[in-house]
Design goal:
The complex is a heterodimer of chains A (158) and B (766). Chain A has 2 domains: 2-76, Beta-grasp domain (Ubiquitin-like (UB roll)), CATH 3.10.20; 85-157, DNA polymerase, domain 1 (Orthogonal Bundle), CATH 1.10.150.120. In chain A, 35% of the residues lie in helices and 16% in strands. Chain A is built from 5 helices and 5 strands. In chain A, helix 2 (85-93) packs antiparallel against helix 5 (139-157). Chain B has 766 residues and is of the alpha+beta class. In chain B, the strands form 7 sheets. In chain B, strands 3-5-1-12-9-10-11 form a 7-stranded mixed sheet, with helices on both faces. A 5-stranded mixed sheet of chain B has the order 7-16-15-14-8, sandwiched between helices. In chain B, strand 9 (210-215) and strand 10 form a beta hairpin. Chain B is globular. Chain B starts with 16 loop residues before the first helix and ends with a helix. Classes of the chains: A alpha+beta (158), B alpha+beta (766). Chains A and B meet through helix 2, helix 3, helix 4 and helix 5 of A and helix 1 and helix 18 of B.
């Protein structure tokens, strides 16, 4: 067992983990339900998190590798009463159908907007390429990212 | 007509949208207690074998293992996993565990253990000795004399009067004949014929199948499961585990997509049995590999179709012979097969039609319900052959379709001849927006505009027209209960199953429209067999149309009760009263639904204002669609780049336009991905070689073409506020539309999906 310590959505945890435990399985074990397991092989993108601000697939990272680092999941974006503009834009655009892939996709979208504050369609498509969604056809999600980017820019100016 | 609605036709916020977007604990895996045991299934490494010996004693002896199941210690109950109404049209050819395995991935045993690692270890301790049997993988060969018999057990049988011959691997047979096809073809000026092959595919819900079973303190089993059919789950688990229905409660939380795969009852029986045997909560989930190999698939098909036309372009005769590969079990073989005819042949009314469908058992993964449900397989041949006929006649394929397609007021003998494996229901088409779908779609794609064909890249366009259905007439039933609360809100209890489609929202809108209140005032709760009334579940494009009508009926009954109480309160004529935005208008007093609720609950002649209504349908009105594709074919590599795709759809009234568009876009993208990349690869022993998203390619944002979605409004008088179904139809268009576009671009006809560079290059080289 390996002792680890990390910050998850602002809360520090300390525990001992098996050397082969993935960050995904750790997060789910400590009750972070938004991080989903769709394949466990790095293909579906439902388990994305921000690790020290960088979007990664948590099934491909060992929990021990994330020790000493800062993990953010969609719980850190907003909540039902105070949603993040991305969450509002996704819901209002009809971009959320079953919603299983959405928490992770929102974090990927956040990374896109951080890199490109006014993202083009191609930049969004490239940024969300690792997030499989079988429900929507992606059209409304791309619209939603553009809407959210506009809203976030306006909020920045205020 | 739609202008007079206040809730229907508006994009209200999806009721579960923000809870999902903020990562709430809403899915089965999120709801498992910490002490839940981990279930795992041991599957067969062989395509066809008898289990000569199985020893589970070492697994049972392992500390931390609570239950081990195999054919020697569970009841042998023949059933079908198909998750259909009772009695099912699929054969009873499945038991929980058998002493024979019929495909690589078939169940052998199951365990429940404290941790996933222990469960895996327990599986590895189960000793199985197999006697290998000759497998058969080709459906056409499987039906020939001398082929290995896959279901040689004496107890496999059907529970409705249909043809079933397992001794020759025939899982299902449908034959129907109208007029004289041979005679008509002999007189036709143009006859076109071809064999079209469709491949295995998986639904790929991003959440794989998952089930949690728990015993409550009363000894009842609570099954929380990712399903499209909670009531069928309850009935089939009771059947398989031989416990009464009353001991079972099935709850469907949010589920991560289904697309037909979760109509199958695949994990619930085993999970429940593990729970009963261990006395502990058990969580059983498929891995992605399990989902590909051991879940359900789209039935592959070999379809030979012939069209005969007179020189004026009128279609005179159609013959279709479909061979479906149902894999090792006959789940949905009969009904998918039947729908190959019933959802495709009526498109072109003519006097001479022959349809034959044979569903063949093979030692490959099992077919099942998959969005499109047979129409996907069959429409490929017909819509490609329409283009072939147009080429022979020197006609524009669009005009040829316009000349021949079914219209409002027309019927088809096929509606009566083909039902769900047995006879269907006579029907004439009510609403039909197909002409407008075709004209608006053509405009969006730039139909008739010349495409560049110079150099090593050639562009082309193609189209296809489509129809589906809305529910299964006289078979499907949905029910709803609505009750009024003190604040003027309403609990809407529905059996209907929202699998991510947004049906909770759509049904809330229908209730709100009928009541005269805002959709915010409706609190939907769906799919809990202890709490909500029955519904067959989310399949056959039925929820909006069928369950929506049940909701509307219940809401109109509640509205009547509200007005009755309001009239009594004001001592006025009930007939003069109406409800708008939660206020009772037309009487002397200013009343609200809330005031009526308070009065009826606390003041006088007290009662709960509530109603329950059920609905069955007398018809299955088809939605219609026209799909258009523009491609660029690389003549050297065979790579097909899809440049633009247009889906123009008539689903009647769109209750929630954005959700209806979302259904169309999602189905379209799935169809495109199926046409261009998705396929199962097998080795010579029947083992799937590509059971991962890394090797089974589904489309991502990077692969998307320019997508155009056009919703063509019509009004279906039998639907709730004019609505028909929307969910399935748009998955069917891509195979024929893209094949036709490739033909237009470079002159070659692709008759087998997916249209990979390899297949296209091979076709180009003749």
């Amino acid at each position: 067992m390996i002792p680890i310590q990390m910050e998850i959505n602002g809360q520090t945890i300390e525990m001992e983990v098996a050397p082969d435990l993935s960050l995904l399985d750790l997060l789910r074990a400590v009750g972070v339900a938004s991080v989903k397991k769709g394949c466990g092989e790095g293909d579906c993108g439902a388990c994305g998190v921000l690790l020290d601000g960088v979007y990664v697939k948590s099934c491909l990272i060992l929990a021990a590798q994330a020790s000493g680092r800062c993990v953010e999941t969609v719980e850190s974006l907003g909540n039902v009463e105070h949603p993040h503009p991305l969450q509002t834009a996704f819901v209002d655009a009809g971009a959320v159908q079953c919603g299983f892939c959405i928490p992770s996709m929102l974090l990927a979208a956040k990374s896109v907007i951080e890199e490109y504050p006014e993202p083009t369609g191609d930049q969004i498509r490239e940024g969300l390429d690792g997030n499989l969604c079988r429900c929507t056809g992606y059209v409304k999600q791309i619209e939603a990212v553009q809407t959210a980017a506009r809203v976030m820019k306006e909020e920045d100016h205020e | 007509m739609s202008n007079s609605f206040s809730q229907v036709g508006t994009n209200v916020r999806k009721v579960d949208g923000m809870a999902l977007a903020t990562g709430g604990s809403l899915f089965v895996a999120d709801l498992a207690p910490e002490n839940a045991l981990c279930g795992r299934i041991l599957t067969s490494p062989h395509a066809h074998a008898r289990i000569k010996r199985i020893d589970v004693s070492k697994a049972e002896a392992l500390e931390g293992v609570y239950a081990v199941l195999y054919h020697g210690n569970v009841p042998r109950v023949l059933h079908t996993t198909a998750g259909q109404g009772f009695p099912e049209p699929s054969p009873y050819d499945t038991v929980m565990f058998d002493d024979k395995v019929r495909y690589v991935g078939d169940r052998v045993a199951a365990v429940a253990a404290e941790t996933p690692e222990l469960a895996e270890q327990a599986l590895s301790l189960i000793e199985v000795e197999y006697e290998l049997l000759e497998p058969v993988f080709d459906p056409v060969r499987a039906l020939q004399p001398g082929a290995p018999v896959i279901h040689d057990e004496p107890d496999a049988h059907v529970v409705i009067p249909v043809h079933y011959e397992p001794q020759r691997n025939l899982a299902a047979l449908v034959e129907t004949r109208v007029g004289d096809v041979d005679g008509a073809l002999a007189k036709c000026d143009v006859v076109v014929s071809g064999t079209y092959v469709t491949q295995y595919a998986q639904h790929c819900p991003i959440e794989p199948h998952i089930t949690l079973a728990e015993l409550d303190p009363y000894g009842r089993v609570r099954i929380t499961t990712s399903t499209q059919v909670p009531w069928h789950v309850r009935r089939i688990v009771a059947q398989c585990c031989q416990i009464p229905v009353r001991r079972i409660r099935v709850v469907k939380p949010r589920i991560g997509g289904g697309f037909g795969a979760k109509q199958e009852v695949l994990l619930e029986d085993v999970t429940t049995m593990l729970c009963l045997r261990s006395g502990q909560p058990v969580l059983l989930e498929y891995t992605r590999k399990d989902e590909f190999v051991s879940s359900r698939t789209r039935h592959p098909s070999v379809c030979t179709t012939t069209l005969g036309l007179s020189k004026d372009g009128k279609i005179q005769a159609i013959r279709m012979h479909m061979v479906l590969n149902t894999g090792a079990y006959g789940s949905h073989a009969l009904t998918v097969g039947s729908n190959c005819g019933s959802k495709v042949l009526p498109m072109y009314p003519c006097d001479h039609i022959e349809f034959k469908m044979e569903g063949a058992y093979t030692n490959l993964p099992v077919g099942g319900a998959y969005r499109g449900y047979g129409a996907t397989q069959a429409v490929f041949s017909v819509e490609c052959l329409i283009d072939e006929a147009a080429a022979k006649l020197g006609r524009d394929p669009l005009e040829l379709r316009v000349q021949n397609h079914i219209r409002s007021g027309q019927g088809s003998p096929i509606f009566k001849a083909l039902g769900e494996g047995t006879e269907g229901v006579e029907m004439t088409i009510g609403s039909c927006g197909l002409p407008e779908c075709i004209s608006r779609g053509a405009e969006a794609i730039g139909w008739g505009r010349p495409r560049e064909k110079s150099g090593r890249k050639a562009r082309g366009v193609g189209m296809a027209i489509l129809m589906q259905g809305s529910s299964i007439p006289y078979v499907d039933m949905g029910a709803a209960t609505l009750k009024l609360n003190e604040d003027g809100s309403f609990n809407l209890l529905i059996g209907a199953t929202d699998l991510g489609t947004g049906s909770d929202t759509v049904l809330a809108q229908i209730a709100a429209e009928a009541l005269g209140v805002d959709t915010d005032m409706i609190i939907p709760l769906s799919s809990d067999t202890d709490v909500t009334p029955f519904d067959v579940g989310a399949y056959a494009s039925s929820t909006t149309y069928l369950s929506g009508n049940a909701v509307r009926k219940a809401a109109l009954m509640v509205r009547h009760q509200i007005l009755e109480v309001a009239a009594e309160m004001q001592k006025c004529d009930q007939e003069k009263l109406t409800i708008e935005d939660g206020r009772i208008l037309g009487g002397p007093m200013e009343l609200t639904c809330s005031a009526v609720a308070l009065h009826s609950l606390y003041s006088h002649n007290q009662k709960q204002i509530m109603a329950t209504a059920s609905h069955i349908s007398e018809k299955s009105p088809p939605p219609f669609a026209a799909h258009f594709a523009e491609v660029e074919v690389d003549l050297d590599t065979g790579f097909v780049k899809l440049l633009k795709y247009v889906s123009a759809v008539d689903c009647g009234t769109t209750i929630h336009p954005k959700l209806a568009e979302g259904q169309t876009e999602g189905a379209t993208m799935n169809g495109i991905s199926y046409a261009l990349t998705e396929e199962y690869l097998f080795n010579e022993k029947g083992r799937m070689l590509n059971p991962s998203f890394g090797h089974y390619k589904i489309f991502t944002t990077a692969d998307m073409p320019e997508m155009v979605t056009i919703m063509v409004p019509t009004y279906e008088t039998t639907g709730p506020y004019g609505a028909k179904s929307v969910s399935e139809i748009s998955i069917n268009g891509a195979l024929p539309a893209i094949s036709n576009a490739i033909r237009d671009a470079c002159g070659v006809r692709l008759t087998q999906g997916p249209f990979t560079p390899e297949r296209v290059a091979k076709a180009l080289r003749g």
